[in-house]
Amino acid sequence: MPKRRRAALGMPKPKKNVRKESESRADSSEFEYGIPTKRDYQRMHPYSSFAVKDDDDEAHFFRVGNNALIVPEGCNPEDRLELHKHWVGKILEIRARDKDPSEVWVRVQWYWAASQISSKLKGKLPLGRMELLHSKSEDFVHSTCFQGLADVVSFDEDSVTQQYIDGETFYWRFEYDPAKERISPKTKLKASCLCKLPYNPDDDDIMHFCISCQKSYHESCLDKHGSIENESRNSDDLPRDIRFERILGVRYPKQLTSFSESDYSSLPQDLLRLARSPIVRGGPEHGVAGNVFPIVQARIYIHDALLEHKPIPDNWKDEVSANLSVVQAWIAEDNDYLCPNCHEVI
Ligand SMILES: [Zn+2]
Ligand SMILES: [Zn+2]
């Protein structure tokens, strides 16, 4: 989890710190030699890391490849900012003019926040509070603008291996081209839900994910559409929880073998409960990425134990990246929904 840090003292502080496309550009006269040109930059001495000291004189290190929190244009490095209000960039290169520690310039590849994108696109997409847009745009940023490290992960709505994303982690699912004012990929701009509205990670209307169809549906749309189980719809007469347990997506076809109670008795009950839960995302409890990864992993463990007699690893909770309290919270309440496409439990 990134901590907010104050920028270095003892190095010249810029009044406005960086330039960024489509924003007003910083006056290069604020720095002794100005913001470097590409040619200047290539002449500077390269480094693999730099340090910025905070008010307590503690050094914070930044390395090539790190994602970093950067003071936004117009903000003072000493202001306390909420995490999501920082600019975020990936450190591509670190160079210093004349090996001078007060002249460290960092080549940064930007992630764009929803608030920074072209006004033409604003409001067209439901972008989350911690959501960023990956881009190829770059700038040179002075070292004093760096506040701390940022956790940034990619979020693939269709993936069954998507890891849980906590509220302090930035995530991105779209690319943004600021020059062409374009967001891609276009195929992901529409949701697979009946309403065709994209997933809003900050919305309370949670989505159920059918891993067989790789489609997501809002609970409210499933309610409206009447995609709710009743007795006449349960054609194979298996209990709902067992049907959940057996859905492993295209990689693992459904096994129709029956197991007795004794086959299950030696399995961890928390793992079984997880395997028998719906796959959901969104809302305050389930988080941006939801429970897809732990649930699919739990189903694979159960599948391997019952069909291939593989032992469940003792550290299965670590493998599904969860501690017990988190696992319990992820076990979602089952509201008897069915996939409108394949009519399986979701
Ligand atoms: Zn919908
Ligand atoms: Zn389906």
UniProtKB/TrEMBL annotation:
Residues 1-18 have a biased composition (Basic residues). Residues 60-187 form the BAH domain. Transmembrane segments: none annotated. Residues 19-28 have a biased composition (Basic and acidic residues). Residues 1-31 are annotated as: Disordered. It holds the Pfam family BAH. It comes from Schizopora paradoxa. This is BAH domain-containing protein. One of its GO terms (molecular function) is chromatin binding. InterPro entries: BAH_dom, BAH_sf, Znf_FYVE_PHD. It comes from the Eukaryota.
